Amino acid sequence: MLKVTHRFKIGFFVLMVICAAGAVGAACLSAAEEVEFKKHESGLFSDIFDQNIYYEGTGSLHLERLGRLVFRKKVRAEDVNVYDEVPDSNFFTNRHTKNRLSLDELEKGYHETDTPDASGVLTVTQGKFAGAHPGFRIQDGRGDTYMLKFDPIDYFEQATAAEVITSRFYHALGYNVPQYTIFVFDAAKLTPGEKAEIYDDTGFKRKLTKERLDEFLLFLPQDTEGRYRASASKYLQGKNLGSFSLQGRRTNDPDDPVNHSDRREIRALRVFSSWLANYDIRESNTMDILQTEKGRQSLKHYIFDFNASLGAGTDVGKPPMCGYEYLIDYGEAIKAFLTLGLWEKPWQKRWREAGEKVNQSPAVGYFDNNGFEPGKFKNQFPYFAFKDLTRADGFWAAKMIMTFKDDEIRAMVKSGQFSRKEDADYVAQTLIERRDIIGRYWFSVSNPLDEFDLKNDQLVFKDLAIVYGFEQAQGTTYHVNVIGRSGKKKIKNASLQSQKPSLTIDPNWLASRDSVDLWIRTTRNPSSPKSPYVLVSFNSQGITRIIHQD
Amino acid sequence: MKRRSGFKYSFLLMMMACLFFEHAVIVHAEDVSYDRYASLYEKKPVPPSTAGNIAKHFLVYPFELFKWPVDKALNFIEKNHIDDKTIWLYEKMQDYGITPYFSLFSINHTGFGGKFDFVRLAQQRTKYPNLKLNGWILESINEAFDVGTEVGVERIAETGFGILGFFDYQHLVQEHFYGIGPHTSAGDGYVYEREALTLASILRYQWTPTTRTDFRFGYQNVDIDGGKDGGRGQIGEGIFNKTLTPGLDGDDLLDYEVEIQRETRNFKDCSTRGGLYRFNFGFHEGVNSSKAQFFKYQAELMHYFPLWSDRRILFVRLFGEHSDRMNGVIPFHQMARLGGYGYRYWHMPNEGQTLRSYDYNRFTDTSALLMNLEYRYTIWEYRDFKTDAVFSWDEGQVFRNLDEFQFEDFRASYGLGFRLSFAHHPVLTFEMAHGDEGTNFYVKSHTPF
Fold first, then answer.
1. Could you read off the pLDDT of A236-262 as tens digits, one per residue?
2. What is the secondary structure of B93-118 as a DSSP string?
3. CB contacts, 8 Å: B48 with chain A
4. Distance from CA of residue B292 to its chain's centroid?
5. Which range marks the domain in which residue A517 is found?
6. Do residues A518 and A546 lie in contact, with contact meaning Cβ atoms separated by under 8 Å?
7. In DSSP terms, which residues pair with B398 in a beta bridge?
């Protein structure tokens, strides 16, 4: 009896401890809700560990992910609207696709000032004088702060042009980026700030002196007039709250309800990065800025640091494996292991064909379309968001890329201010070709129908593969299943085919039905397999839903 | 005239039509009758529920406890430039001729020490480019202590001649002996302690930057004592006695050697081309009470064959050793030995040659023949980092005289490993090798060849 009482006491005590822990946990949770927008720290090392080791190992322990893996289930992006588009948010603003930007706007990109004000002195306030991309922070005559980053000594214009050009593309596509400009200046304008400190190659913080600054400048390339050239990124207004996750979300941000790996614009960064060869998209190259607009605080999400895009990468140009393999790529390593090293990887073939050296101009770096396969492009880290990219996401990204006309691409490349016209032409031409390769690929794996509209008794749409000349109109057939819906009840109304990108709507389809679903698949010739579907729903009011198959 | 202006207008209209057409092929958002970018959702995005999150991710939570401190530590390292500081410190030490050594694979294999280039340490390398004044010290707990120095001039007055002095004291507390001959048993393991003092002078002639000849005169004092390794046989037990195992009393030896060496490897540690070819001939004579007197011949040929790429390397090594007894004996500690990874510490004279699936110094006799074959190929590269997979095959045997040599006495070892390197320097290697006495696993920060 005594023992039973004793056990009861112990049991009661354990229960109390659990309750107390629960109460403390709940209190902490509610306290956390009150603490708004804590700074989220991340860096290259933690990105390597998290993405290349931790999540690669524990990814399948997420039951949801395991389910996706086992059943090969594609998960639809959660932030898309009923028209299969991404509405504007703090992550993304539909810019060029919504309201076409002028050539001038495209060339200028996100624009607050032209360049740092070099009419007076430029005070160096902080710096990093070591690493692949050294640079320093300056304050100009207007009191604005900029980060200046430079080119490797033998690759004048390479990293600076890449950074500025790529920022223009991301901005036009719809992402938030800081202002980047090419800034050419005389060393005489620079003066070390009173409290300026730098990290040199020792890793120790040192006071910045004029001698140290001059010594640093010795290792930077100069133009023919002895001036220095940098990419100048203007510091953003607002409180910097560190990086944002490319996977989860800020749980206390009311504007951030969707896990970032389920945001289409985050997933699609993989496609845009493939266009711009920007393999270095990672969490530590993102930034959350707390801004106040119309009396309301909100977090605006930025991406930055593009000096490893296009042909740039390190102090000698882009490493040949970048874009083809993750930093640690278990799959590729296993393939190489199992084939006893006899299989030549695509990047190894390309590198061999290039003579195992950067074969373009030093200002361009290692950038061409030889062996470029958009569907196989890999960023440096295997973020879930990039792995989760579906055909619908890819199609969305590709159709945005295809909206850029040749002269618009050239306008954005112009912002890199290459001193040689041939370099600018080469980069622009490579991007133009790359655009088409991307469009051709994503339109071939999806059903590239867009611009659905009801006009009179017709459903009209555009077949983007035909619009952009990737496929012939002749031979193309659109196969449509018409399903009527009444509440949850679905009734097949008709099956029809059309050789034109339009369908005549039979008024009977809507008779005694709430809405009609059109499941449209495309074939390019009689023997070709049917494409994935596009689901278009409409009712008497108009189009109510568009879904491209994921 | 009118015709001309009509033509102009038609041309203008045509151009405008073309422009319109060009514009028309570009998709426009405003073409549709609805706002396609409107925030209209079939199901408005809502944050996932806490319960839902827990249900989906509960298996991961224990690992998050591990992730959190690692992330924090890595961010701290990056933010405070600890990596830069460490690299700088290491490079600075290298500039000053100091190469540190750490081994932390287990408590029993904890080692530390360093190599020192005293000329660099005194910042006199530029002034005396040919002067050699090196030292080393190493302590490997419960295994070895080694201290030594090398002094000399590599090139005298810009000729090919050089002269070097060598001193080394070594104390190995648990060396293993399994008997002499090819048919010994791994179960007959004995342990002993070996203390060796070596003094030598080397006269060198460098024929070309890759080829040299060394004339070496040396003195060795070797003391053998009971070793510390519980469960193994001690001196005097079984075959480990003075009758069957010469040299158990220790020896004082005078060494006269000549060695010809040609080295064409492109990297010392992770070579992909070239090779090392070495021939050594020596006469060794016991002094004081030692009865040793023998000739020793050694040949080592290793070559790296790139197979149409530096990413695929076939490595071949042939090694042979034979000792001829004169009027005295050949001490067991001077005999040819096979077994183990082939590289334990920096200075290991008479180290067991590489036969990976067998224990260190598993086979001992007056002669040895060995072939090492490796097929290495790169399976991962990122910038200067590289991982090679290695398939190895070691085939070797010890024997007394050539007439006792039998093909069936060859012992084979097959292995697989992975070697991570940075800028052609080995960082970490994992290797396993299997043979008829079991499987050995090696985790090292260097490679055997």
1. 999 999 999 999 888 888 888 999 999
2. HHHTTEEEEEEESSGGGEEEEEEEEH
3. 259
4. 34
5. 449-548
6. no
7. B368
- Local structure of A181: helix, strand or coil: strand
Residue A19: band (very low, low, confident or very high) from pLDDT cuts 50, 70, 90: very low
Chain B residues inside the 8 Å CB shell of A453: 31-34
CB-based burial, A124-133: b 16+ in 10 Å, e otherwise: bbbbbbbeeb
Q: Please tell me the distance from the alpha carbon of residue B250 to that of residue B274, in angstroms, as a whole number.
A: 40
Percent of chain B with pLDDT over 70: 90
Q: What is the Cα–Cα distance from B213 to B202, expressed in whole angstroms?
A: 10
- Transcribe A24-55 into DSSP letters: HHHHHHHHHHHS----B---HHHHIIIIIIIH
pLDDT at residue A530 tops 60: yes
Which of B136, B132, B140, B214 shows the shortest CA–CA distance to B169?
B136
User: Which 3 state secondary structure label does DSSP give B227?
Assistant: coil
| Helix, strand, coil percentages for chain A (3-state, nearest 5) | 35, 25, 40
Asked whether the predicted pLDDT for residue A491 surpasses 50, the reply is yes
The contacts of residue B113 (CB under 8 Å, 6+ apart) are B100, B101, B136, B137, B138, B139, B140, B146
- Quick one: pLDDT at residue A255? 87
* Environment class of A487 (CB within 10 Å of its CB; exposed 0-12, middle 13-18, buried 19+): exposed
Q: How much of chain B is in helix, strand and coil states, percent to nearest 5?
A: 20, 50, 35
Rounded Cα–Cα distance for residues B336 and B352 (Å): 7
Amino acid, res. B418: F
3-state secondary structure of B57: helix
* Nearest-CA distance A239 → chain B (Å): 19
Helices assigned H by DSSP within A44-194: 44-47, 55-58, 63-71, 103-108, 158-173
Structurally, chain A folds into a number of domains equal to 2
On whether residue A456 sits in a domain, the answer given is: yes
- Detail the DSSP E strand segments found in B291-346: 293-306, 312-325, 336-338
- Higher-confidence residue: A448 or B157? A448
User: How high is the pLDDT of residue B15?
Assistant: 44
A364: in domain: no
B21 touching chain A per CB within 8 A: no
Any CB–CB contact under 8 A between B57 and chain A?
yes
In a domain, A249, yes or no: no
For residue B107, the model assigns a pLDDT of 57
Q: Which of B67, B78, B382 sits opposite A321 (nearest CB)?
A: B382
Q: How many CB atoms lie within 10 A of CB B4?
A: 8
In this complex, the residue of A258, A321, A467 whose CB is nearest that of residue B25 is A467
**Domain-terminating residue out of A236, A267, A299:** A236
**Contact residues for B283 (Cβ-Cβ < 8 A; gap 6+):** B255, B256, B257, B294, B295, B296
Residue B47 to chain A, least CA–CA distance (Å): 4
Give the pLDDT confidence of B212-231 residue by residue, as tens digits.
Answer: 999 999 999 999 998 877 77
* Mean predicted lDDT score pLDDT of chain A: 89
How big is chain A, counted in residues? Answer: 550
DSSP codes, A426-493: HHHHHHHHHHHHHHHHHHHHS--EEEEEEETTEEEEEEHHHHTTSS-STT-EEEEEEEEEETTEEEEE
The residue out of A210, A236, A262 marking a domain boundary is A236
- Identify the H or E element spanning A193: strand A190-199
Q: Tell me the CATH number at A457.
A: 2.60.40.10
Q: How many CB atoms are located within 10 Å of the residue A97 CB? A: 24
A97 and B387 within 8 Å at the Cβ level: the answer is no
Q: What is the DSSP letter of B233?
A: B
Q: Does residue B65 belong to the interface with chain A, where contact is any CB pair within 8 Å?
A: no
Say if A121 falls within a structural domain: yes
